[in-house]
Amino acid sequence: MLREPQQERSRTTRRRLIEAAMDCIGERGWYGVTVAVIAERAGVSRGAAQHHFPTRESLVAAAVELLGDAQIDELRARADRLPSGSSRIEGVVEMVLTLYTGPMFRAALQLWAVASTDDQLRGVLVPLEARVGREAHRLTVELLGVDEGRAGVRELVQATLDLGRGLGLANLLTDDARRRKQIVREWARTLESRLAGTEQV
Q1: Which long-range contacts does 90-93 make (Cβ < 8 Å, 24+ apart)?
Q2: Beta strands in the chain (DSSP E)
């Protein structure tokens, strides 16, 4: 009978550590963060943190995986409110392009920058990012209701995701919301034109 509460506490502690890790990395960068710093932010002892995550890299791996899953879950939840027809395309584009904003994306960028020269961190991030990227691509295809076997469709979907990342990067220094809205409209028109003849949801 005591196992369930203990297991729940363990899950709660892990979640707090993961969220604290992303917050700290977003604020301080990779080199300004240690397990001790993360543990303090999460309100747990360093020993408890190392019990769940022996290294900073293992904690980051869990954080990246959680972030990716949270992004996909958010897309799925918002997809239920999308209209049908051509206006759906703009809704999907807006969802994808706003996916790469906020503190979680900021933290991810910090990690990517470090991983470009840190072999150990890159070894952790690359397979996780590849999995998240494949799932985001697959879900975008599903939401647009297009046939990826048709010439050019795969590239258009990937361009949408890449555009979202680029706009997320531009949003780091200044609030880019107004320009992003304009780009959403124009890119949605481009997709609608290029995807004409492809079955929509």
Answers
A1: 90/184, 90/185, 90/188, 92/140, 92/143, 92/144, 93/160, 93/184, 93/187, 93/188, 93/191
A2: none
Residue 159 has what pLDDT? 94
| Cβ proximity of 115 and 129 under 8 Å | no
Decide if pLDDT at 67 tops 60: yes
Report whether 72 contacts 139 (CB < 8 A).
yes
What is the DSSP-derived secondary structure letter of residue 101? -
* E-state strands within 19-175: none
Beta-carbon contacts of residue 49 (< 8 Å; ≥ 6 apart): 17, 35, 36, 38, 39, 42, 59
Tokens at residue 101, please? Answer: 């904003």
